[in-house]
Automatic annotation (TrEMBL):
Belongs to the SusD family. It holds the Pfam family SusD-like_3. InterPro entries: SusD-like_N, SusD_RagB_dom, TPR-like_helical_dom_sf. It is found in: Cell outer membrane. Transmembrane segments: none annotated. Residues 24-225 form the SusD-like N-terminal domain. Residues 364-571 form the RagB/SusD domain. Residues 1-23 form the signal peptide. This is RagB/SusD family nutrient uptake outer membrane protein. It comes from Arenibacter antarcticus. The keyword Signal applies. Its main location: membrane. The keyword DNA-binding does not apply.
Amino acid sequence: MMKKIIFTYMLFVILLGTSSSCSDYLEVEPKNKVSANAVLSDPDGIRGYLANLYYQLPIEDFVYFPRAGYNARGNTGSLSLSQYSLEAIHSEWPNWNEFNNQWWDKGYKLNRNINLLEESILTVDFSEAERTQIEGEIAFLRAYTYYGLVKQYGGVSIITENQEYTTDWESLRVPRSTEKVTWDFVLSQLDIAIDKLPESRHNEDETKRRGTKWAAAGLKTRVALHAASIAKFWNQAPLSGEAVSKGLVGMKASEAEHYYKETIEAAEMILNSGSFNLYMPEPASPLEAAINYQNLFMNPNVASTEMLFMRGYGHAGGPLAHDYDGWNNPNQTGEGFPHVGRTNPVLGLIDLYENYNTPGESSPIITTTDGQLHDGEFNDAIPYKRFSSPEDIFEGKDARLFASIIFPGSIWKGTEIVIQGGIVKPDGSVIGSKDSYEHNGVTYYTYGAETPNRYSGFDGTPNMTRTGFLMKKFLDEGSRINTWLQSTTDFADIRYAEVLLNYAEAVAESGYGSILLATKALNDIRKRAGHTTIIPLTLENVLRERSVELAFENKDYWDLIRRRNYHTIFNNFIKTALVPMIDLRGPEPAFIFVRKNVPGAQPNTFSERDFYRSIPRINNNGLIQNPQH
């Protein structure tokens, strides 16, 4: 029902956007459209207007692509944020590192719409209770908007009143605030939202898709942790220049303590409310844990106790659907969609998942009998482990791996996913390009099968994985996707597990808060994944858990940015793959695995100036540019 309401409101406000353009001829009232004044002077119009503002929020979900921007649909190329982090790489463009999207213009357009709304509600007849809620909603939307700005640009111009159009450009110029003032502004707006928004709304759909007290508090844990990290780790990648000397970017390390405390207080408010819990927190086995975790993202509506804020999708074939399934289904189950298999999880992420027999430790994939990590091309002298089935090498791994990633030998939509990168002939020589080889009366193919429709990797074409892995998290195994805009899976933007991890990190970094409660938060998440051993609260444990639990939720990229270690990791850095090969050297054929650089990937280096984006059009707006741009 709520999806229908949102859709109706969106169409309604598309009309508003059309009618609000500034040209003389529009002074003649059109007969078939609703004027902006009419919308913003009517209670129902304002409710519809609000729904459209949610649609414009800079939520980094299924329709966010750094190259194309927010709410991007159509043939975007599916260059997702996870491919810019340590999680994945793109199957067609493994070396793409360009950010085309600028949130500046869209951010200030949204800000203007929020200011217009705030100005309008003063003259509209609402009950006091509803007016208070709308004021809280305005604060929530404004906080989300400026969070999108400050994390990309540092300190920005804070404009909270509608600016009337004038040719006196100088009067419209608003200088940038410092980065600290901007973060504090976002947090102050969230405090207003927490104070004025209700804990729940008329029904479950509305509660999870509009601002509530808990959504605002959850967002506050994310915002405050980001600000704390900028302050604490600024000196790991210090910049210089006018923007730095005036405090427009960067904060003092002494400010970190305050922001960690803000994170902790907001998180404890949620933890102590008793309103939230992890979905299916006590599985009977790792297998059950994997099924639960997959279901959590395939349909987040089943996990209402874990959801603080979601973005809803619906109406397959319409503007409120998306293409996440289409872009990421394996080639073998592509079902006619033109571009599949695009997001390829990398071996570096797979290595982070624990084994149940070594709790509290990353568990890299060991491919050799000597127990050592051997990275590089196949070497006949290395004692590779031999497996009768390719999936055997992942035995004992954390349940979330099996719920998030399709690996060689996985069963997906009733089909065994064939991912193979070569043949080792009996004499130890290798076939690595498209070919076949007959041995003992059996024909073996380089990529595991004769024709491309029967395999999903390594032949170098865009629809094939080049890492050995494919996406599973968020994909709907029951869907059939053969054209654009068929996916309607909702996106869990703020969930309880993230709040627990934000809390654990803030406590581990600062020493404030409850170590006992933070340790429980960390281990509750692991328990939901089938772990039975309690591990201590250490920063290493928290960050590893964050990488695994929040994988592909577009958090890892921002973790690298805020903790200021992106430039040290991405310094001539090449992501890695796990390449299965059929080995014919023994008495029986077997699968071996080679750890190597992603085929076709070049060294990638992140410039420190890119911790902040370029401020556009400084010659016109008079703003001070960010360092080195």
